[in-house]
Amino acid sequence: MKAKQVFDAIFRIVFWVWNLTFLSTVYLGILPYLAIPLIQATIDGIIPLEFSLTLTALIAVPTVFTIVGARRFHKQPLQLMRLFYGVEAPLFLLCLIRLFMLRELNPASSLIIATIVLCIAAFLVEMLYGYFGKQENIEDISISQDARNRKSSSIGFMGNKRSAWIQLGFHSLMLLVGTWAATLLMFYALPVAFTLVVGFLSFVWVAPLIDSLKYTSLSIIWWLPLSLILFGLTSSLFVVMPSLYGFLYIQSGRKVFRSFASQYGKNQAIMGSLGVMAAWLAIFAALLQQPQIQAMKILATPAANDTARQTLLAKSDMIRSGLVNAYLSPYRYLSTVGENNHIYEMYKNTFSLPNTAARNVQNSYNFLMSPFLYQGSDSDVKKAEKLYAGFFDTEIQKGDTEAVKHAVQSTSNRQEAKAGLLNVNEEKVWLQSQEVTITEKGDWADIQLYEVYKNQTPNLQEVFYYFSLPESAAVTGVWLGDTGDLKRRFAFSVSPRGAAQQVYNQQVRENVDPALLEQVGPKQYRLRAFPIPAKREFSRTQTDGPTEMHLWLTYKVMRQPQGWAMPVLAEKRNIYWDGNTRRTIAGKQVNYKGKEAKETWLPTFVLAVSRQQAIPRLANLPGEHTISAKPLVDANYSLPQGKKLAVILDTSRSMAGETKEVKENFEWLKANSLKANTVDLYVGSAAGMPPKLVEDLGSFDVGKLTFYGTLQLKDILQQFAQLRADRTYDTVFLVSDRHSYELSDDRKTSVSMPSPLWTVHLGGLPPAYDDGTLKLIQDSGGGVSTDIKEAMQRVATTASSGKSAISVVDGYVWSYAKTPKSAAVAKITDDENEGFKPIAARQLITALSKEKTSNQLTQLDAMHSLAKTFKVVTPYSSMIVLVNDAQRAQLKAAEAKSDRFERKIESGKEELTKPNNPLNVSGVPEPEEWLLLIVGAIGLLGVFLRQRRAKVIG
Q: If pLDDT is split at 50, 70 and 90, which confidence band does 212 have?
């Protein structure tokens, strides 16, 4: 009797002291310092809801079960221990692991976690209500009459037999889970028990503990014993839990099994239990198969023919799943099998085991932990990224944005300030208002776009646009401001493209206001502005500072038959608009509704008020340069006649989406160019199959093509150069799609184009070109288009307009002449119109870019000087807005460097921070060192509390 009283007292002490101690820690530590920021991050969309729910459960577990213990089991010490070790402790430990160790769950780990939760719930139900069979078969005297009544009402809607079968199924799983979890925890319990005993008996922790008291406040008087009690109880809990947890679950499973067998027969009980366990194990085995193994295996060797390529394309879903799993493996798994060495180090150092024995212990642990371990190496992340790009023809962050974003948000890692691929179409910055002002000047106009941005998040954000303008347009300014006051806005500087990019990126890293406007193609532009002020939270300290950002953009454009061309959006990041955005276009308020309000940035054209007819124009520019513009009518356009043409076809995977347009363009080509010209077709190919030359275009069947892999424009041109050999062509047309600029790189190309290169992008222009490809297009005298007919018309019409013609674009033929000082300058009309000269300067720079020179840097400086004189953006000169002298000094230094025109690819790919590997260690402290670490942690806690108290008083 005395022994029973002693055990009852121990059971009560363990339950109540541990719960009360931890309740104090939860409500005084976790709740104010962790819960509130985590909930705020969930509201802001930074982390998934499941983490806040897990934290809520972490706080609720000791609270709820303290109440349950007090109300239901305060007179039953044994039941208190069953409640604690069978329900509360494992549930609390599971919440801790989910919150601080597990990130994004994979299928196998999800099954394990879900099964554990169900088994804990089944154990709790058995504690509260007993066996769900016939009431007369229940002999557990620990269950009160009230509990039996509640049990009867809870299973009445299912029936006793069905409830009994369900309970048998859960308790059969409990046998599996109890054995697995107890065995797994035992790997830690043995070294922890040994460490505690040896470390405590060494008494080396006493002196540091005394020293720590000298540097802490009086609050350590209650924090120290609380921490020591919590540590002692938690340690004892951890040591005892594996065996007790397994015993309780196996005992509960056997109890239900026997009750079911006595009621429905032993054979049915055995069949039911084995059936449930077999089904669960089959599901587990299927989910345990990691898809990256097969995906990487079948992509290891490039497909050597169309049949092999079509076979791989049919397995796209499996390949995608595997490559994404490998790319996100640091987020979905605790460690790779190879890097998981903590058990090996722990047993080797704690028990002085030989390497072989310690390795065997580690391998046994790895077997049990297989749902949480990645079957591959750390290098698989880069490998999967490369294979994904090569197979799907797009960057993995763009192709599987939602999967990557969810994985990143499943940790405390915050995204970079710069807007990357994961921010495409994100709704973080609201376009509060937009105003377009048009000042007509006959057949050209000055246009201003004015926008106001409001950040909807508590973090600084970057607004990012890719857009296009007519090829003859000239962008003449960009400004930033905290308010709409024009006198207080920050002006731009025209700077070499490389120097501007370098300074902008540096200022973004330092969270200082810049804006950058670049030309990244014949028609394409990139606009970035940072930082959009963070949304103010409810805080008394946030009373000053800007709350919004104002941006002005101006450009000059020639009138088109449809009116005045507006910027055409190709891609946006972070920015969004809706029906509440105030829009004023050319003095008229515009109200979009529904889907249109969310999708429309600007109208494609705005009708011109004046109907003045287009007239020839002439501009005399510095350096005896003359640019003339002559309007064209439909009769002026022609097609190539008697020319030798080369057509290069891109067969990368993304082209499959433009199959219809490919067929239409080739049908037009066969009908309108093949008879009057000699046309050779070059078919590019991804790795595995060689490119080919088709000299008989008439017999070529587009429908038999297999679009596969990825091809960059530079690689396609390299293939063309190798196949072309000594063949010469008057013009080269490269037929592609919007392409993946994000996959471009900064490689220098050795390809030279002796004839004009025209890129025809079916489905729309790419958002940007790498500078190497852009140089090839411009230096060769080529251009860009979205259909083969327009490209050929412009080529033929330019050729028929004389040697001085620069290009045929936007309804005009643009010509260039260099007039000696002694020669008379012909006057067509309106040569004194200074406003037209920036448009002319853009054409002059295009003409100068085609001239061959031995000193490229001198040529670039000359073109930049023109851009700076007329304040225009060009492919070589960008506009950057700076707000302080330090930024201007940094820009001046960058402009003096020899690489001032070297611009890097802005892929937008975000470098994801690799989460810490909790299962990889370089060494394990000795037993006495563990206690020193614990004492040190308690001391640091005291110092922190003292400093915090002093700060509050101050």
A: low
